Amino acid sequence: MRKRLPLLPLLTGLLFLATGCGVTPTGPEGAGAPASGIQRPGTDADHARLYFVGPYGLRTTARPTDRPLTPQQALGLLLEGPTDAERERGLISEVPSMNGRLTATASRGTVDIYLPVNIAELEVAAVSQLTCTAAHSEVPGDRRPTDVDVRFHENLGRSTAPWTARCGADGNAHPQTRA
């Protein structure tokens, strides 16, 4: 004896398949401005890489520039603090204003930063912000940013020997011992 399939479940299944998933065909819809932030292939764009403090430690941010920035220019942007958009992302700066008295110069693989204060007066995060921002600026020589020596001269160079640090791959300043 043959079993017969119930007719109602079979018809319901066929009806379901015939109606599809409920998505109706439509044309293209406007969705706002075109994507931004990604560089077009074949174009050159420079970015200043600045380091700010976020909820989970130091964070880097890239600001578009029309040319590579010297350490003095990059640190000038850092001293201005985060933009509104960066603040919305929770970024702040621990670097005090320094009243325009911070100067920086670059030579082959080295950046010299002249501070108006003793380095011990700065927060550890501020030292990392200064070190990594300077190391990622335009520094003469063929060194990676993690190999650039950043020398801090306290009290605008009136102290004896500079204090040297490098920006680690983790985005933090790492003191360098003297040889």
List keywords for this structure.
elongated, 179 residues, alpha+beta, single chain, 5-stranded mixed β-sheet, two-stranded antiparallel sheet
How would you describe this protein?
With 179 residues, this protein is an alpha+beta fold. The chain has one domain (46-175). The protein is built from four helices and seven strands. It has helices spanning 7-19, 71-80, 84-88, 124-135, and strands at 46-54, 57-65, 103-107, 110-114, 149-153, 163-167, 173-175. The strands form two sheets. A five-stranded mixed beta sheet has the order 3-4-5-6-7. The protein has a two-stranded antiparallel sheet with strand order 1-2. Strand 1 and strand 2 (57-65) form a beta hairpin. Helix 2 packs across helix 4 (124-135). The longest helix is centred in the first third of the chain and has 13 residues, at 7-19. The termini are far apart. The model is unreliable at 33-37 (pLDDT under 50).
Write the layout of secondary structure elements.
Blueprint: H1 7-19, E1 46-54, E2 57-65, H2 71-80, H3 84-88, E3 103-107, E4 110-114, H4 124-135, E5 149-153, E6 163-167, E7 173-175
Parallel strand pairs: 4-5
Antiparallel strand pairs: 1-2, 3-4, 5-6, 6-7
Helix pairs in contact: 2-4
